[in-house]
Design brief:
4 domains; 9-stranded mixed β-sheet; binds adenosine-5'-diphosphate; Ribosomal Protein S5, domain 2; Heat Shock Protein 90; binds magnesium ion; alpha+beta
């Protein structure tokens, strides 16, 4: 590598600039966290070198006594944090302290701005910005909350050259060659006038004890170690306070919410391990990124191995944070080899079962708390139904659903228990918008009869349903496909007291209805598969249904959106014989001159388009739709 022998100046990536503005402008009350961030980086640097040293002992150069040192220089008004970890070379400095090499940066910043805009009085602003910044892992830049200049003197383990990175946080930074005897990094903060308090001995001790006690390396101030310096998960649970658990979660997960659930266990067996796992109380921002990365850190005998251990946990548990440490895994193999170790698979299945059983406990004993969890992570948990057949029965037990019967989340067992007499199937309606499907006309007949329908609005729902055709012997049935088997079901105690769908008095003569159906079929031709009277409608005039053997409407839409389907199957148009419009149209259809009745023709298309609109789709031909609507309105006025 060639590096310039003199000082070079660089501009911060635009996003970093924006971030620095936010940091400088909005994080006043809690600025002591800069120290936690810098100590956390120092600890990560030691972790990294300890791991590299396993396969390349030369890097350690005989010194594996890792430590972090804080120094105050009250004459120079500086505070410095040093480590003897992995260090950075010229390229590392460019890559890490000047750019943000993460996907989703601009959407993150957008989100941050949004949060600040929504909170003009500033009441939650600091915490929200802090939470988001922490989650995004841009901790180093928090130095500029307390410093008007930051120097980073660093030398990478195994390399001879050292560099000095320097910036006032105002758009530019410089890098120049420098001298440093040992590997590692020293971050020196030139403290702002109003930040001198951070040179006080007691203040520093207090901050380290509060935020960094769990760090596995000693944090020294002069001769004293300020922290416990034993990895938190290795201590007995009874010696750990809730605050300590929370602080460790913040450190290890880059999160600032409260953990929703903490699982600290020591498992002894053929493969022994300790887990300290957390379920967050707010969804991490990368939850739905296509990589579906795990974030639980894997340690082997207290040595950090990787944060992205494939095979440690299934993808549907990617919301978990925390660490897993095992003495029984081999330290002397590469990360890739480790991932195929059968012992890792054993740990994985043990952890998975443990998490499911703890979730089940919550679901049964604290339903309200569980609802919070389910709203955040339910859609992810349901991926497990698709991906792991062996867990399906256990998992479906902890799945919760919304339904037409109130706001509470229900289990499938709840649903089956209150099925109406004569009801054979578990009815559901699927779509991408919960509020929209809850208002769908398809539900009218079910509501009137008091028959409960599950409202499924996660994309994953269509996929697990393919793998789980039934629950407890009852088949799942979409109410937007096939016949509505409502006749066989006894009226429950639903919201309608009269059984409107069976109320035939008010319907047109059978012959007139047949005439209307024939006329609509003739006019719409191939666009629809069939036209028939509906049993599921009470208030709306029309709806669209997929034929029994065809794909359900929502699945079809989903596949089309993902480019896996070119055209949609024609659907069945169901008309409501009890509706005033349908009655009037039936009269017209049986009158003279029906065949040349333009209004009847326009109405046929309008009915179809109306049904499409109710499903959240566009009219087949918007221009024609508009012309027909105008013409029909004109004749009505
Ligand atoms: P994060 O720690 O989440 O990656 P930071 O903004 O805290 O984000 O740090 C950015 C990067 O800078 C780190 O990932 C690391 O590569 C590098 N870095 C920061 N401090 C140090 C250090 N003391 N030693 C080595 N590398 C460091
Ligand atoms: Mg950091």
């Amino acid at each position: 590598m060639t590096t310039a022998a003199t000082k070079e100046t660089f501009s911060f990536q635009t996003e970093v600039g924006q971030l620095l503005d936010i940091v400088a402008g909005s994080l006043y009350s809690n600025r002591e966290i800069f120290l936690r961030e810098l100590v956390s980086n120092a600890s990560d640097a030691c972790d990294k070198l300890r791991y590299e040293g396993l396969t390349n002992a030369g890097l350690l150069d005989g010194n594996s006594d890792f430590r972090i040192a804080i120094e105050v220089n009250s004459k120079a008004n500086t505070l410095s944090i040093s480590d003897n970890g992995i260090g950075m070379n010229h390229q590392d400095l460019l890559d890490t302290l000047g750019t943000i090499a993460r996907s989703g940066t601009s959407s993150f910043l957008e989100n941050l701005k949004q949060n600040q805009a929504n909170d003009k009085d500033g009441e939650n602003g600091e915490n929200t910005a802090l939470g988001l910044i922490g989650q995004f892992g841009v901790g180093f830049y928090s130095s500029f909350m307390v410093a008007d200049k930051v120097d980073v003197l660093t030398r990478k383990a195994g390399e001879a050259e050292a560099f000095l990175w320097s910036s006032d946080g105002k758009g530019e930074f410089s890098i120049e060659p420098a001298e440093r005897d040992q590997r590692g990094t020293t971050v020196t903060l030139h403290l702002k006038k109003d930040a001198k308090e951070f040179m006080e001995d007691a203040r520093i001790r207090h901050i380290i004890k509060t935020y960094s006690d769990h760090i596995g390396f000693p944090v020294m101030l002069g001769e004293d170690a300020l922290n416990e310096a034993s990895a938190l998960w290795t201590r007995p649970a009874k010696d750990i306070s809730e605050e300590q658990y929370t602080e460790f979660y913040h450190h290890t997960a880059h999160a600032y919410d409260q953990p929703w659930l903490t699982l600290h266990n020591k498992v002894e067996g053929i493969v022994s391990y300790t887990n300290l796992l957390y379920v967050p109380s707010t969804p991490p921002f990368d939850l739905y990124e296509p990589e579906r990365k795990s974030h639980v850190k894997l340690y082997v005998n207290r040595v950090f191995i990787t944060e992205e251990a494939k095979g440690l946990l299934p993808a549907w548990l990617r919301f978990l944070r925390g660490v897993v440490d095992s003495e029984d895994l081999s330290l002397n193999v590469s990360r890739e080899m480790l991932q195929t170790d059968p012992k890792l698979a054993k740990i994985s299945s043990g952890l998975t079962k443990k998490v499911i059983s703890e979730l089940k406990k919550k679901a049964t004993k604290a339903a309200d708390e569980y609802s919070e969890f389910w709203k955040n992570f339910g859609a992810v948990v349901k991926e497990g139904l698709v991906e792991d057949a062996s867990l399906r029965d256990k998992l479906i037990d902890i799945c919760r659903f919304t339904s037409t019967q109130g706001d509470d989340l229900i289990s499938l067992a709840d649903y089956v228990e209150r099925m109406a007499e004569g009801q054979e199937a578990i009815f559901y309606i699927a779509g991408d918008d919960a509020a929209k499907i809850a208002r769908s006309p398809h539900l009218e007949g079910f509501r009137a009869k008091g028959v409960e329908v599950l409202l499924l609005s996660d994309p994953v729902d269509e996929f697990w349903l393919q793998h789980m055709p039934e629950f407890d012997g009852k088949p799942f049935k979409s109410i937007t496909r096939g016949a509505a088997d409502l006749d066989a079901i006894k009226s429950g105690d639903g919201d309608g007291d009269s059984d409107k769908s069976e109320d035939k008095k008010d319907e047109p003569e059978a012959a007139a209805l047949d005439g209307l159906i024939a006329a609509i079929k003739l006019e719409l031709g191939e666009i629809v598969k069939d036209v028939r009277p509906s049993k599921r409608l009470t208030d709306s005039p029309v709806c669209l249904i997929a034929d029994e053997g065809d794909m359900d409407v929502n699945l079809e839409r989903l596949l089309q959106r993902h480019g896996q389907l070119n055209s949609m199957m024609p659907r069945i148009l169901e008309i409501n014989p009890g509706h005033a419009i349908i009655k009037k149209l039936a009269e017209r259809a049986s009158g003279d001159g029906a065949a040349s009745d333009d209004l009847l023709k326009d109405a046929s298309h309008l009915l179809l388009d109306q049904a499409r609109i109710a499903d959240g789709e566009a009219p087949t031909d918007p221009a024609e739709f508009s012309r027909r609507l105008t013409s029909v309105m004109q004749s009505a006025l």
